[in-house]
Batch of 2 targets.
Target 1
Amino acid sequence: MSRPVFNALKATAVLVIITAVCVGALALCNMFFPKYVPTLDGATAKLINEICPTGVSDDIALSDGYIELLGDDDYGVKLADYNKANKSAKAEILAVYRQSKGDNAGAFIIEAKSSGRDGDVVVLTAYKNENIVGATVKKQGESYWNKLPTDMFESLVGENVYSEINLSAKFGKTGATLSLTAVNRAVNISNSFAKEHNRSIVKPDDFTVYGHAKESE
Amino acid sequence: MIMDYFLAIISIVISGILTNNVVLNQSIGMCPFLGVSKKTQSAIGMGLAVTFVITVASCVCWIIYTFILDPLSIGYLSTVAFILVIASLVQLLDIALKKMSPTLYSSLGVYLALITTNCAVLGTANSVISQGLDFFQTLITGLAIGIGFTVALILMAGIREKQELYDVPKPFRGFPIALVTAGIMAMAFYGFSGLSFT
Amino acid sequence: MNKEEFKKTALGGLINNPVFVLVLGMCPTIAKSDNIINALSLGLCTAFVLIFSNVIISLLRKAIPDKVHLPAYIVIIASLVTLVQMFVSSFLPDLNDSIGAFISLITVNCIILGRAEAFAGKNKVLPSLIDGVSMGLGFIAAITLLGAVRQLLTIIFGSGFFDKTMGGFIVLGLVMAVFNAIFASVKEKQRKKTVLIEREVA
């Protein structure tokens, strides 16, 4: 082939290789940057205590088992399978916590995440029976988070697991639409999970309808 | 419903030109602003070129994000993808202007290539995605921001043309006086921030 | 490289300060110098990208054909910026709140592309590294200085002016003028010294 054509091809090839290497490196980094793993740590206990008070201090709630992190066996379904089946929800359930003692015994808290503008938004939603009693954000790295309405989570209190939450309709144009949509999706998948599995998380035998723990516990 | 949408569009236009002007409110996109803005003639040409790039780039980036990056969950590649789109667009504009309008081409000079590194272009593309606008709103946003940029540029050129005739103290000559002037203009535009429909 | 060249490159960040002399990278300088934390953080992120892009581009300078050198540089710089974006959003979410949007604008920061074109594309790796560090430090110093001045003025005069764009423009213009005045007087002193020495010798 002629010189100019060869040169043009070589130039294009170099550019393509450089782009491929860079994109590959970034994909690798994307896999290795800490994928958030839910743990019941002090920070989480504090958040849970705020939206669904146990009546004791955060430390005691954590150390004395007022709040516990449940496993797949406790609610009878593998989270991984549930998330796979619900891919269209564009959100994932990360963990379920339960309050077995304290002022809100019988309440459970679902931790869900959804993709926002700059990464995942992780939301905690607290339920008692089939009603939302509180919600808050656990983790987010959104650039425009401070444009969201401050009473966004309070407005969720009183909704139940049968509601289709639509924060965008309620709050309109915020300037942080992607972040709001992420919160929306996280709460909605929490609702679906709660609706299907609340009888397993809080077995009717252990708690009365209003969630008071049996005396022997 | 239609009324809401219509008001939203008006709000985008007003914010792009007056209340959220890229240069004077958001303080992005000023490198060419400070360099080219000495003659009103070249300011208009520059403004047109930038408006074209911002509008087309925002729309193309929107399409790429909505139909390729988001569905595949590779949103993190948006910076690389967007800047490549912008660079290609400017290259195309370069070739097109050389053929169609040699006068404009030569008056822009090196500043045409510099549109690639104009923060306003990449900034608008990013902001349009984060606001979750639809395609038509993206188009209007691009136009509005471009017009806002052009307005700021023309005003600046007018003032600097006059400044050439005055005796500016030595340390202030060149960029410092341009910056202070821009600051005063920004003050005027800050007054517009009371205008809002939402 | 010899001592003269080293000195010239290493002091580049001061003598040819990217913000005050070369007048590049204006966007983040005015927008995010409203307080010291923002300014310092953004400065560090920019310096990181600058240093690594200088080194990588210098390493690859012989392999990249001239025709595609611009897109190649852009891809490398954009990838480095994406890396910083990932890091900040994973480990420093609060910082992401305040400067997140501007991290992606580092891609189009004229300083980085400017140094890649003017220096890294034509020089060996070690000088490019030194240039990157020097210019990076120069940028950090400049933007942090502005951040400090604006934060101080905001504390004295209350918020609403110096922490906004208009204040940013004016403060930058004034600091630039001061910088020019100082360097002009230094140059003037040096000139006078050389004249005196020449007179003595004569």
Target 2
Amino acid sequence: MPSSWDRIRDEFPILDQQVNGRPLVYLDNAATTQKPRAVIAALDRFYARDNSNVHRGLHALSMRSTDDYEDARARVATFINAASPSEIIFTRGTTESINLVASSWGGANLRKGDVILLTEMEHHSNLVPWQLVARRTGATLRYLPVTGDEGLLDLSQLDRLLTPEVKLFAFTHVSNTLGTVNPAAELCARARRVGAVTVVDAAQSVGHMPLDVRAMGCDFLAFSGHKMASVTGIGALYGRLSLLDAMPPWQGGGGMISNVDFFESRWKPSPERFEAGTPNFGDAVALGASCDFLDGLGREAIQRHDGELAREAYRKLSELPGIRLIGPRGERGGLVSFAFEGVHAHDVVTFADEDGIALRGGHHCNQPLMRKLGLTSTVRASFYVYNEAREVDALVASMKRTLKFFAGV
Amino acid sequence: MSADLSDLYQNVILDHNRRPRNRGRLATANRSAHGDNPSCGDQCDVFLRLDGDRIAEITFDGSGCAISQASASLMTTQLKGKTSAEAEKLYGEFHEIVTTGKEPEEISDLGAFAGVHSFPARIKCATLSWHAALNALRGDPAPATTESHTD
């Protein structure tokens, strides 16, 4: 059944509740999105009917479960237009996907003298794994700068930084703190010219806008299910098959071997090579269901919807006294991020909670960027398919109340 | 405003947040310590001039929410003149106040923090500066953190 924008809030049972005596206004979608009935039902159906361990099973349930799992892989592949389901490795989420590339590709290919290029707007999950592999291999890190509060990548620096020593360029598609939408296809093309492999953090983009890995031209792309209307504990790594098949395993165990001897083993090809142990097939089914749900709404329509709310919020918030909005003034992903002079983000979030509004305040796992901008924290409101213009108004009213209390404005 | 929220943001707390006491580096300090609250990025430096075992002067610097800033400010007013044993005892009382909501037996501004106990996520905001101050007193070179195994 195709999902529909009519009565979309009815699809999300969690939204129908009061928080602190007020209707819940959920604006913490960049942290995790809520789940539609279709996804919850897919999980329920799988466990009520098909659940059994996958692969090698000769009985009916195991065959059904295996089919469900591999159908989910194929569904995720079409969702991002991968060339083959074998290019989709199921992981726990974006963080694990990036760690997989850092550990396996990085461990096998990085040497002393090599450079890993990152940007100053990376989430800790696309920063710390590279620090770890740099320490292990002797490679060094280099950063493409961000242009201050407007939060754009300073592309004028790219030629200077993207030199032949750069073996890998990892960057976020959409910034979780700034809302910046980076020109991923251009960055991938530039990296390819110097022979650098690209890793795209798509946690904030894949469930929010059309995404085609082949049009983008990336080598790896990482994302999480729970930020795209699916459940926690499942995500995926896309990798170009020629790269994946040349990479060593990163974890050993059952399911990933073609033959095991007492002293040596041989590996299966991708994706099994990178999925040691019993995989998270139940949640993979839920991820497939969220792909169906989002494509039913249309990702162009989702991008338009979230972007309109974010621009409306930006415009209305910018009229408040003492506010500092960060991130681009023009095109942005579906979030706004801001700080008030003299009122800390945590106090703002505590007051908003009393109004039933769920916001996030803090460094958003972006400490180096925050330091660069001279901030310790911001308040972030992030939107998804079920949010409405009246919720932007509720946000603005709550901010006014908080300012009045703390600053007497 | 709800009763919980007005209990949290008492006048004493708002006043210390707006006009922090003893804020800034202390040029004559002979002890200092840094504290981090990694869950929110709050930071706090505490500077002490110890005269024997007694805190002759104390200042703080850092950034954070109203609760953390007011707590640091009020702490400096409470710890000045105390011995290290007295400071440890006072922290024990403060910890009791913010975790249980029990008002102190003796009248004290620290009682303003009793409302914090209704907001478990904010307890660390209130205790960060105290952790840093005690580390400075103990001469512990490690930065204080709200994420250690012992709270």
